[in-house]
Amino acid sequence: MLRYIGKRILYMIPVLLGVTLLVFFIMHLAPGNVAAMILGENATAEQIAELEHEMGLDRPLLAQYAAYLGGLLRGDLGTSYTSGESVTAKIMACFPYTVRLALVAAVVSVLLALPLGILAAVKQNTWVDNVSMVISLIGVSMPIFWLAVMLILLFSLKLGWFPVYGAKSWNSIVLPAISLGFMNMASIARTTRSSMVETLRQDYIRTAYAKGLSKGAIVIRHAFRNGMLPTITVIGLEIGQMLGGAVLTETVFAWPGVGRMMIQAINGRDTPTVMGCIVLLTVCFSFVNLIVDLLYGVVDPRVRTMYR
Amino acid sequence: MKKSLSLKRCAAFLLAACMVLSLLAGCGGGGGEKEPSNSTPSADNPDASGGAPAGKDSLTVALTDEPDYLSTCDHDSLMGVQMNLLTYNGLIRIDMETLSPVCDLAESYTQDSDLEWTFRLREGVKFHNGEELTAADVAASIQYAQTFAASAIYTGSMEKVEALDSNTVKITTSAPTPNLLFDLGYHFNFILPKSLIDSGNDFSANPVGTGPWKFVSWDKGNSIQFEAFDGYFDASRKAAIQNLEFVMIPEGSTRTMSLEAGDVDFVYSVASSDIDRLRSDESVTVEQVVSVENFFLFLNTVTTAFEDENLRKAVAYAINREDIVAGALNGYGTPSYSCVSMGYAESTDEGSYTYDVDKAKEYMAAWGGDPSTVTLDIICSNATKTAIATIMQNQLSAIGINVTINEMDSATYQEQMRTTDLVSAIVSWSPANAMTYVQRFHSTRRQNTPAGMADAHMDELVEEMNTTMDAGARTGMIQTIIRESNDRCWFVPIYQVNYFRAHAAGLQNVVCSATGYVDFCTMHW
User: Fold this and answer.
1) Among A3, A17, A176, B387, which is most exposed with the fewest C-beta within 10 angstroms?
2) Is B150 in Cβ contact with A43 (below 8 Å)?
3) Is the pTM of this model over 0.80?
């Protein structure tokens, strides 16, 4: 198992290399001059060239990339072009908020989605199934931006139960987590339903019924565990995406997370900050996928043998 | 089977009805509109029902974006300057209402010759760290600013800055600089403690100045906090509110709802879609200011057909500015007919062109070219500019000019503006005074827009203006340049931006400048 984990961590290295190389070159090839943006509209061509030289932007791209990789190996994500701050410090200031939001939203989505999906599968082709799937359809179709604004209108403005914006108080996370979780709930519910429907059709489930086991015991103890694998995959993907920053949710709720910072960095051609966010996102996704793979082994003992 | 089908249909119908009703509930408007509030400054309003809680000594302001720096020389952004106005002073301050330079840290000044200026400092002025302001601090601050490339336009004219004694500063310029007072009022020239400059202080993390507000803390991405500076030298401009907090809320509707919920007291930038709703809310006051920010249709007059004056005049006559303001801005803008915004002492709209399609066609005929050979490709950097260009597309089709619209992000747009590859762009400019405006369009200050007009005669007029020290004569020259620019139509003015700020009705004496800044010193509950 440890060897498997070690191998997966090593696999992250070529993935990181590939992703950073691609993003680095895309950022530098995109139109827009960061030195000109920093100096403003009144800068002369000479002043821009001087600043580019100071920032090392006049070196060949490969040399710049090599220097960036060197810094990355030392744990230095560079300095933001626009604010002069350490990128590591910038990301560390935002990332805890993103993690908090992602985890709470994941809990919300799982708590909503699993019962919905299981109920829909157990009561397949009944009104319960239809209502469950309509709810999940609403979740996947509803613009998250609109849902967020509606939640603020009702729960903050009309009822005054939660703050409108920010991350200051303990209850600030509720509305952002609900709006993000509701959207993610949809795909988890639908996956759970399909997977459970298929599992409930298996012969051993019919055997369990024949043996006289209760419906609850069959669904929870037998069918649910065997039908969980696709659901775990989807939950892992959703958490990975949320850890990369939920830009729309963060924007509407003024949640100071990584997503909003990354968009600002892209618009400002702040390559070090963009690269730092991409590195973080890649690492998060890789670790989440690793945890998902390990959970397969927990849920299904047959998978565990592959990790030895 | 039939029963189950009809149940399904009922369920589907009920769900659909719920969705439609919830959409309508979300889009519902408020009550009837009330009259727009006064523009700067807002009058004390005895009828305001939105009062502040007793003893409220804080003000929370919602901003769209966080400034990158709190220092004076690392930026040239509006929000950065707004922050600088809280913590720093210059020798000169630009008055927010009259837009004229007034003495600030300087008690008085004399102009000894065309090149020499002497400033007498106020005595007993303290920095936030307790040090007393001296002439050495002034000299050090300006010399420090001169090390920043971005400050060159506002510091480059000062050849020598000397501390003659502890309270007297002499500035010698390299050439006659009639705009020196405006330059000194610019944030690059705000005064910093020499001791902190020498020690390499990071003025963004530790912004120590003489300003009415002292920096308290900056939680990046969340909030910036200031407190009133008890030792502020100017009693008439001492902060009346003890604590000031800026919070970052990028989304317009969230800012508005935060104000309505009482989570914030002041919204710096109100989304145009929320203006009517806020005006109908008695607990909120909306401030509307006609700014000096002018939106133009910039034309490449160097490498395209628009180097022909008749073609430019045809375009100017064919554009209906009222329709653009109504269609693209929901009516929240002021049609502009002059290349320099109205609102400055020197402003004039003489020589400009109003909407007249017949005259536009006459000028097209005078041009003599084939309109089908002209494609006006307009680059835009945001949705508002795109909306403006879309309306122009329709208007210019009346004279046979084909318009294409190219929307791009800000970084790409700025890069395009520095080339002669573009044909046209929607741009906005808002310099602090008419002279800087004129310098911007002509002579060396326009070097960042090489596709802009290049005319030797205009350059001569501007150079003459640059060295005319007599204020009256200079005003006449500025107006001459504006008239000629309007007549020759180097670019087509469209509208002047109206700034909308909103605040709790209990907040009094709110001064919002036409330059975009807000005076937090004058406000009180």
Assistant:
1) A3
2) yes
3) yes
